[in-house]
Specification:
iron-sulfur; VanA_C_cat; Rieske Iron-sulfur Protein; 2 iron, 2 sulfur cluster binding; alpha+beta; 2 domains
Length: 347
Amino acid sequence: MTIAITPIAADPVDHLLEVGLKDLWYPICPSHFIKENPVSLRRLGRKIALWRDGEGVLHALEDRCPHRGAPLSQGVVLGDRLSCPYHGVEVRHDGVVTRVPGSPGCKLEGSQATRHFHVQERAGAVFLYNGKDPVDVPPPLVLPEQLTDDAEYSSFLCYTEWKGDYRYVLDNVMDPMHGTYLHKQSHSMAEGDSTAKFGIRQTDIGFVFEKEGQRNVNFDWTEWADTGIHWMRLEIPYPKTGGPGGNFIIVGAFSPIVKGMTAAFFWRVRKLPPGWERDTWRFLYKNRLEARHWHVLEQDRVMLEEMEPDANQHENLYQHDLGIVRLRRHMRNLAQTQLAESAQATA
């Protein structure tokens, strides 16, 4: 007797979320990753070649030569072009093949045969526009003022790569209550009530998930925002021994690398104009505070990496998890809308 096995179809919504929603900006690496030679990165379900031309301007192409699929990132930089190491095919930053030295005049020359990507460098990081289709001009990259207003804010970028789905990292940041327990030995998160009730407050660009009746005591709230890039923000009160600048601000943004790997960007920020107070805080950060912050991140990393990939299928959520539920539902709605629009465009 033969038993027919019906394959289980993959959930297209989950797959889209796994590799990253389209038509958004994402941070993909710190700026210092790209120096003299081309670099290959796997991000957002793609393999991307990045390089700088003679003026230091950053360019990005899909890391696949249109001739035979060899990695362009292994080739030679010719200004705004990459020369494939396999057969010398030259591809310009806009994806156009400018020269095929082995067969001059062939139909490959002059064709836009390679996917190109718009990239920008801001706040010490490289951002890539993950359009579902190539566009000549991407929408503006709009970051929170804490990363753009150098006259008011000073920041450090902390970049790390964690094993696990980036959505678990989103859940972690959208969970202020874990700071009271997981980070209870931290110099900055040892205070406040161990019980709390939370509420959700809508904003023009997203929402804030916050403790009711407690503010500026611990990790008391998280903001999620969509400004053409998804970012999160929180504040942690600091004692005077942490230097000037008021609350310690963290801005986070996260990108999928490959299945089960996350690129995590945490900007540590204080509100300080240029001057001796800013210089004092930056000195304290590099010489005392940075190690403590890495210790806190290490606690998060261990917890998330030890969670099973299907942990979210075995949850029993309660009131503290309203922010996670809200964010997951919103992300799924965005994915469903993008898939419906793609299906309509195809039809």
